[in-house]
Amino acid sequence: MDAIRGVVYRTIYENTQRTYCVFILKDYNEEYITCTGKFESPKEGEDIEVRGRYVEHAKYGFQFDAFSIEKLKPDNMGAAKLYLMNLGIKGFGEKSVEKVLDYFGIRILEVLREERPEEIKEVPGLRQSVKDELFNTLLGEGILADLNHFFESHHISSKWSRTVYTYYGVQAVDVIKDNPYTLLRVAQDMIFGTADTLAENLGITGSDMRRLEAGLEWILRNLDNQGHTCLPVDQLIARMDDLLQTDVDDIADFIQSLLEQGALCSTYHDDILYIYPPQMYVAEVEGANYTRDFLLEADPISLDIQGFIDRFEQENHITFGDAQKEAIKLSFFEKFSLITGGPGTGKTTIIKALVKGFQLGGLGRIILCAPTGRAAKRLTEATEFEATTIHRLLVPVQGSDSYDFTKNEDDPLDIDVIIIDEASMLNVRLFYSLMAAIPREAHVIIVGDVDQLPPIGAGFVLKDLLDSDCVPYTRLNQIYRQNSGNTIVDSAYAINRGDMPKLDGNGDEFSFIPVNSYDALMKVIIDVYKREQEHIEDELDIQIISPMRRGEAGSTRISQYVQQALNPPDSHKGEVRVNGITYRVGDKVIQILNNYDLDIFNGEIGIIYAITRTDICIRFIHKEVRLSIDDAHMIMPAYAITVHKSQGSEYGVVIIPFVPRYGGMLQRNLLYTAVTRAKRKVIIVGTTSAIDRAVHTVNADERYTLFKERIQGSCDS
Ligand SMILES: Nc1ncnc2c1ncn2[C@@H]1O[C@H](COP(=O)(O)OP(=O)(O)OP(=O)(O)O)[C@@H](O)[C@H]1O
C-alpha cells in the first residue's frame, strides 16, 4: 500500500450519500494526483494523507485509488487557520477563527493535534452556539479519524465511518470493538463476512454469543425477502451452520434459549417445529385469527339482490355470467369473501356493481383499495369510485417500520365495506395490518388473480385463503374482454394452462421476435421501442418488462442501453449523475419508495422534463413533481423494469425480453404476469426455448408459512 500526503486542491465529484468521491491532491512535490475513494470528500485546502494504490482507469487514466483517508493536523499557524476555517461551521468565519488563534497562540497546534476540543470552550468572545458546534465538530473529527484508522487497520473500507459515527457518536470505536456485528445494523450494505472477519480479528470466534446472535439476525433478516414467515428448525440450524461453521449443538441450544426467553416464536405442525421471528408470528397468527372471526357468521345486506342484478345488467347493457352473479351474491351475503379470475373475467365490473349494491343496501361507507398506487388509480378510473392504496388508507406511522400504521384495532377504519383489489400482492404482514384495522361488522371482499406472481414479502395470502377451502369464494373463468380474437388474453390463458402461446401468428396484439444472440436482443428491443414510440401519444404507455433486474439482460442494463440509444447526451438537455447513474431530461424513471410528501408511490413511472441545480422535475401520469436531487435514491431508470415491479400496473404496449440467460426466473407465473400487464400489445423478444421452459415450469419456490393451516384451524399455537 502507498501513502501520499498533500493538500486537497479541488473536489471533482461526491455522491449524494457522501460515500464516494473524486478529488485532486497536490502532494508536497507540487504534483497533482487524481484520487478516488469510498468516503466523504475532504475539503479543499485540507492537509490529508491517503493510503491506497495507483491504478490505471480505462477512461480516466492514471489515478490513486485511496482506501483510507486521514486529515493531518496542522503543524503551523497558517495551516491551523485554514483547518479551522474549513470546518464549515456557521457563524465561525475569519474573525472568529482569529479570536481562537489569538487566545491560544501557538498552543492551538497542540489542542488540535492532541484532540482536546473541550479547551475551545474557554475562548472568550465566541457565541455559545458557535462554541458548542465547534466543540462537537472537533470531537467528531477526532472520532472519525479514529474510526478511519480502526477500519483501515482491519482492511475494511472507511466509507462506513460517517454512518457509524452518526449512529454511535463518541462511543463508536468502543461499540464496534465490543461487538463488531453491530456494524451490520448500521451499515446496510455491509455483508456478514466483513463483520465476521473483523470479529475474528478481535478474537470473537466459534460459538461466541455475539456471533450466534448476529448470524441468526442475518438469516431472519432475509426471511421476508425470500417469502417465508418461518423456517423449519432443521433448516434454520443448517443455514446458521452454513454461515457460522460452528458447533451445531451450540446453535441448537442457542435457538432453544431464545425460544424460552420469547425472543423467537415457534409452532409445531405435522411433526415439524417451525421457528418464527416474533413480528412474523404475530402477523401470521393474528391475520388468520381476524379472518376466522369474519368467517364465523354470514351477514346478508338488506337488498333484493336478484332485482338489483337485473337492473344493473339493463343499465350497463351486459348480462352477467353465472359465476359473476354468484360472486356478487356471495359478497352481499357473507362478511368475508373472495373473487379470483384471470384478465378480462369481469372482476372490475363486479366491483362496480358491488359499490352500487352496497350503497343501495344502506352500507354507504365503502372503501376500494389496492396494494399499489398505480393499481388504485386504475381501479378509480374503471369504477369511477375513488380508490386508495392500502398504505395511504392505514396511515403509516412516520419514520417507523413499513408495517406500523396509525389505523389498527384500537383506531379502526370508519367503514361498512372494504374491497381489496390486486390481492395477489398481499403479503402476510400487510394483510394482518389491514385486517387489524377493519371493524368486525364490515364486509370484506378480496379480489385478485391467484395465478399472478406471489407477493413481495412473506406468504401468499390470496392463494392460502383459496386453498384453505374455508373462505367463500368465486372463481371466474369466462373471459369477457373483447371476446373474439384477443390474442393477448388467449396467450395469457394458454401460458397459464401450461400450453405454448401461438408464436407464429402475425397478430398485431401478441407477437414474438426470435433472436439468437445478446447483441441481437438489445438491438431488437431498441428498434421495437423506437417503432412503438412513434405510434404512441404517451411514452409512459410503452414498457419493457424484464424477468430480472441484475445481469447482462437485466432491467438495469437494458435501461442503460435504451438511454444510450434513444436519449444520448445532448448539450441542450440537463443531466445529473447520482450514485453512478446518469439521469437526463427525457429519461423514464420509476419511483421505488413511497414518498408521502410528494404523493408519489412505489412503482409509479414518470418522465424527467427538467433538471435544475437542486431538483429533478418529473412528470408522472397524473402529476408533476420536483424531486430534490438529495432524494434521487427514491428513483431508478425505468425504460425497463422487472416483472415484480410491474405487478398491479398495466401498459398499452409491453415489450418482454425472454432469453435462456434468465435461468431460474423462467417460470410460468412470471411470464403470465408480464403478458397480462399489456392492454393492447405484447412483443416478446427472445427464444422459443426460454418461453417453453417458462410455460412448463410451475413456480417451485416453496414458501414456508402456516397461514393456510391457521385459517383452517389446524395449528395449535
Ligand atoms: N358479463 C359481461 N358481459 C359482457 N361484457 C362484460 C361482462 N363482464 C365484463 N365485461 C366486459 O369485459 C371487459 C373486462 O372486464 P373487467 O375489466 O371487469 O375484467 P377484469 O377481470 O377486471 O380484467 P383485468 O383484471 O384484466 O382488469 C370490460 O370491457 C367489461 O365491460
UniProtKB/TrEMBL annotation:
SMART domains: AAA. InterPro entries: AAA+_ATPase, Coronavir_polyprotein_1ab, P-loop_NTPase, RecD2, RecD2-like_HHH, RecD2_N_OB, RecD2_SH13, UvrD-like_helicase_C. The lineage of its organism: Bacteria, Bacillati, Bacillota, Negativicutes, Veillonellales. It catalyses: ATP + H2O = ADP + phosphate + H(+). It is an enzyme of class 5 (isomerase). GO terms for molecular function: 5'-3' DNA helicase activity; ATP binding; ATP hydrolysis activity; DNA binding; single-stranded DNA helicase activity. Residues 333-476 form the AAA+ ATPase domain. It holds the Pfam family HHH_RecD2. Gene3D superfamilies: 1.10.10.2220, 2.30.30.940, P-loop containing nucleotide triphosphate hydrolases (3.40.50.300). This is ATP-dependent RecD2 DNA helicase. DNA-dependent ATPase and ATP-dependent 5'-3' DNA helicase. Has no activity on blunt DNA or DNA with 3'-overhangs, requires at least 10 bases of 5'-ssDNA for helicase activity. PANTHER family: DNA HELICASE B, DNA2/NAM7 HELICASE FAMILY MEMBER.
